[in-house]
């Protein structure tokens, strides 16, 4: 069974390209969210296996959203992403409860699969 | 001679006539023992009140104090009817006798404005008039004994003989009078306490004489009450008579003293200013000493910011014209404002005094003003320097945001698209081609956004070709038709050209976003050492320069160059943005 993914990013161009990319690599993109509040709600309703979560959202901080999503039992895996480099964020990624970080430019199905394996 | 003056002179003539009547009554009196003294002192006291009263009335027609003082004089003459031998006139004199005492109380409480300012004062005086004019009536009708000394005429108003009943009314009347006199003394002391120092000095002679008078009257009334003979103080004691006679002269002395001392103080001020270079606090102190107003404050006119500042250059608000306690006298030199003296409103009683002191100190004030202006300028520069740094930081933040949201996102998408195309290249070449087309579009957009950003940081054409070419390029890119009407030929200093460019750029962005205009016009002129930049549109108007961060940022950038931004935007007529930048 293919991995169900929720994509969270405020840039529609990124969401659509990431959807195309992940679907072509066998993922099942079950939803998209443009901000943190919508993302938390969607994670509860859609029960994805994986949330691809942008760090810079218009409402909440991506790290806070990751912490909220991963705090419930049976929570999906969260992978943070950003057009910035992970070195810009220091230890914040691991503290947030996320599985890991992928720079946007290096996003691929293989890289995601590595992190959630 | 105006009609008021004529009427007042007639009034004084009437008082002279009454004085003559009084002399005649005293001389022919059967019951006056001290004829010589009374014939001189009686008219003298009455005429003193009427004379000074008429004088004060003439000098300040709108102040009721003069009228009150004149009324005291006439009431005094009416009390003189007790010298008459005719019983009816004698009784009338006894009845009206206390009236002048109530009028004196009224006058003292109303000093110096002529108005009873407090409810307490008004209540006291109303009770006083009721006591003097009504409570006594039953005493006379019940046959009260008014024959003192014994050879004086009898009570002519007796309807029925009830001596004990009459005494009750006399006692009530005297008790009330004693209470009122004590209350009056308290009120006078309170009046002194509430007054500002200059007011207190002007009031002193009248208030102290008034206090002595009320003390003497209190003693007289109490002793009469204990003796139980006369109705009310018809025959005042010697001390109260002296204090009473001194009152109008105390008024004149207070007037002269404040005038004389103030004129002298202005002279002293001139001397102090000439003797030493007075500055800062000491100039304020010198003026404060000269005018006798410790609360005096100075404000200096800053020509740069066109408002009043204190000696430290900080903006100050002057008290409003409606203020009853504080007044402002503005001092000018050669028709240009120099300073404002903020002082106690009581000083306005001496018209021209503050102005005279200010004129005497105007040179020192001008020096002081220059220093205050310098300090104001330094404070302004500190603010504008901080603002320039703030604007710089805000611009860097905006730049980071723009790079992140714009070009960076597009390059990320491009990277993903290239990766996707690579995976499809062999399996599905058609899809790969479509993805690559999308990627080219993304790249073109990224390039355009980077160009726009670079122009926003600093347009290369402005450095290379000057303001005219840069504005033409700006007009060419604007979504609304823009005509660049005139731009000076020669180059201006780079900071001026840059700020002028950004004023036009921001304004044209606003025209496109909000103005709903058909066209806009841009003019740059050089006028009297200024570069004037004007952007005019025919849109809906109603622009609020304080609302948008863009225009506020521009105003701060302009302030760094000592420039100013004006926005004229009447509803329905269009908007004109005008920047004036100093440019030698």
Q: Estimate the strand proportion of chain A.
A: 15-25%
Low-confidence stretches of chain B: 229-234
Write down the Rg of chain B.
Answer: 43 Å
Helix-strand pattern of chain B: HHHHHHHHHHHEEEEHHHHHEHEEHEE
Low-confidence parts of chain A lasting 5 or more residues at pLDDT below 50? none
Radius of gyration of chain A: 12 Å
Average pLDDT of chain B:
85
On the 0 to 100 scale, the average pLDDT of chain A is 90
Q: Structural class of the helix and strand makeup of chain A?
A: alpha/beta
Distance between the termini of chain A: 14 Å
Number of helices of chain A: 5
Quaternary organisation of the protein chains: heterodimer
**CA-based shape of chain B:** elongated
CA(first)-CA(last) distance of chain B: 63 Å
Order of helices and strands of chain A: EHEHEHEHEH
- What profile does the largest beta sheet of chain A have? 5 strands, parallel
DSSP helix fraction of chain B: 55-70%
- The count of helical stretches of chain B stands at 18
Supply the helix-strand structural class of chain B: alpha+beta
For the largest sheet of chain B, list the strands in their spatial order. Answer: 5-6-7-9-8
Total E-strand runs of chain A? 5
């Amino acid at each position: 069974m293919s991995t169900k993914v929720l994509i969270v990013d405020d840039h529609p161009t990124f969401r659509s390209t990431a959807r195309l990319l992940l679907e072509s690599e066998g993922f099942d993109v079950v939803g998209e969210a443009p901000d943190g509040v919508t993302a938390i709600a969607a994670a509860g309703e859609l029960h994805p296996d994986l949330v691809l979560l942008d760090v810079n959202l218009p409402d909440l901080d991506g790290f806070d959203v990751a912490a909220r999503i991963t705090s419930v039992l049976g929570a999906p895996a969260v992978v943070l992403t950003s057009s910035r480099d992970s070195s810009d964020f220091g230890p914040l990624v691991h503290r947030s409860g996320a599985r890991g970080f992928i720079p946007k430019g290096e996003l691929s199905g293989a890289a995601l699969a590595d992190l959630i394996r | 001679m105006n009609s008021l003056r004529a009427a007042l002179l007639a009034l004084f003539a009437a008082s002279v006539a009454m004085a003559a009547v009084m002399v005649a009554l005293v001389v022919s009196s059967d019951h006056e023992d001290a004829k010589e003294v009374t014939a001189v002192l009686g008219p003298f006291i009455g005429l003193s009140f009427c004379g000074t009263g008429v004088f004060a009335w003439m000098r300040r027609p709108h102040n009721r104090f003069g009228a009150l003082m004149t009324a005291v004089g006439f009431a005094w003459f009416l009390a003189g009817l007790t010298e008459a031998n005719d019983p009816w006139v004698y009784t009338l004199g006894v009845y009206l006798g206390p009236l002048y005492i109530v009028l004196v109380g009224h006058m003292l409480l109303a000093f110096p404005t002529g108005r009873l300012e407090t409810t307490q004062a008004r209540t006291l005086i109303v009770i006083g008039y009721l006591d003097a004019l009504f409570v006594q009536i039953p005493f006379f009708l019940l046959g009260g004994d008014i024959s003192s000394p014994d050879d004086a005429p009898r009570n002519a108003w007796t309807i029925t003989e009830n001596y004990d009943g009459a005494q009750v009314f006399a006692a009530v009347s005297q008790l009330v009078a004693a209470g009122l006199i004590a209350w009056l003394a308290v009120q006078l002391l309170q009046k002194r306490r509430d007054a500002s120092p200059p007011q207190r000095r002007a009031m002193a002679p009248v208030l102290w004489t008034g206090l002595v008078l009320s003390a003497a009257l209190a003693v007289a009334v109490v002793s009469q009450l204990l003796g139980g003979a006369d109705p009310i103080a018809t025959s005042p004691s010697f001390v109260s008579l002296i204090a009473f006679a001194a009152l109008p002269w105390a008024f004149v002395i207070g007037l002269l003293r404040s005038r004389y001392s103030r004129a002298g103080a202005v002279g002293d001020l001139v001397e102090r200013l000439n003797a030493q270079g007075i500055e800062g606090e000491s100039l304020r102190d010198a003026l404060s000493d000269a005018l006798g107003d410790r609360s005096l404050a100075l404000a200096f006119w800053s020509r740069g910011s066109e408002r009043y500042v204190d000696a430290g250059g900080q903006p100050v608000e002057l008290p409003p014209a409606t203020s009853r306690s504080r007044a402002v006298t503005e001092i000018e030199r050669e028709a240009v404002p120099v300073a404002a003296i903020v002082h106690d409103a009581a000083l306005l009683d001496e018209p021209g005094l503050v102005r005279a002191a200010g004129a005497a100190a105007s040179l020192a004030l001008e020096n002081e003003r220059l220093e205050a202006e310098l300090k104001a300028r330094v404070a302004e520069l500190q603010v504008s320097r901080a603002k320039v740094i703030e604007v710089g930081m805000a611009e860097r933040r905006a730049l980071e945001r723009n790079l992140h949201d714009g070009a960076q996102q597009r390059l990320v998408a491009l990277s993903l698209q290239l990766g996707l195309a690579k995976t499809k290249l062999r399996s599905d070449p058609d899809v790969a081609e479509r993805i690559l087309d999308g990627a080219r579009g993304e790249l073109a957009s990224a390039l355009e956004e980077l160009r726009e950003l670079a122009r926003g940081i600093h347009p290369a054409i402005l450095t290379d070709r000057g303001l005219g070419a840069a504005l033409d390029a700006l007009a060419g890119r604007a979504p609304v038709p823009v005509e660049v009407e005139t731009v000076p030929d020669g180059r201006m200093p780079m900071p001026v050209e840059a700020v002028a460019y950004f004023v036009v750029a921001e304004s044209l962005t606003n025209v496109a976003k909000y103005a709903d205009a058909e066209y806009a016009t841009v003019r740059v002129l050089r006028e009297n050492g200024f570069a004037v930049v004007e952007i005019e549109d025919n849109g809906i108007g109603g622009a609020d320069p304080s609302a948008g961060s863009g225009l506020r940022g521009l105003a701060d950038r302009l302030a760094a160059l000592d420039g100013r931004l004006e926005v004229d935007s009447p509803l329905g007529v269009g908007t004109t943005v005008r920047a004036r930048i100093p440019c030698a």
